């Protein structure tokens, strides 16, 4: 499964909502999509805030970079769902 276009309302960014969303997402996916073993996303290497949010929420950096985006290299991250 892939995750894309995560966005928290600008007025509420930096309050821990994104991190908490990612933490809750794992349980939600385990319950509603039990056949998926993991979830992937890509995040722009310049987007330090989003990278931290995903890491704290439970995603791991795979160490691979996706180089096909229009805005520069992106980290490939994944979270186990099993
Ligand atoms: C990235 C995003 C989803 C994170 O959600 P959030 O609720 O703002 O993040 P959290 O409050 O859980 O904080 C996670 C880290 O990101 C940092 N952060 C959040 N917004 C930031 C911003 N605009 N600039 C720099 N750092 C930011 C936080 O400070 C925190 O790090 P810290 O505790 O070391 O300071 C949210 O900021 C967002 O929607 N950003 C715009 C869209 C975007 O970049 N989406 C990701 C595309 S892959």
Short précis:
Helix content is 32%, strand content 26%. It has 82 residues and is an alpha+beta fold.
Domain count, please report it: 1
CATH classification class = Alpha Beta
Low-confidence stretches: none
Mean pLDDT: 96
Give the bound compounds. coenzyme A
Measure the end-to-end span.
13 Å
- What's the total helix number? 2
- Count all strands and give the number: 3
Do you know the CATH architecture?
A: 3-Layer(aba) Sandwich
Helix content: 25-40%
Task: Assess the beta-strand content as a share of residues.
Answer: 25-35%
SS class: alpha+beta
Tell the overall outline. globular
Give the helices and strands as they follow along the chain: HEHEE
Write out the CATH superfamily name: Gcn5-related N-acetyltransferase (GNAT)
Which fold name is given in CATH as the topology? Aminopeptidase
């Amino acid at each position: 499964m892939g995750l894309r276009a995560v966005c928290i309302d600008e007025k509420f960014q930096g309050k821990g909502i994104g991190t908490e969303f990612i933490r809750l997402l794992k349980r939600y996916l385990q319950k509603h999509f039990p056949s998926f073993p993991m979830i992937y996303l890509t995040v722009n290497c310049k987007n330090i805030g989003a990278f931290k949010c995903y890491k704290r929420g439970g995603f791991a950096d795979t160490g691979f970079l996706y180089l096909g985006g229009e805005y520069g290299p992106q980290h490939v991250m994944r979270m186990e769902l099993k």
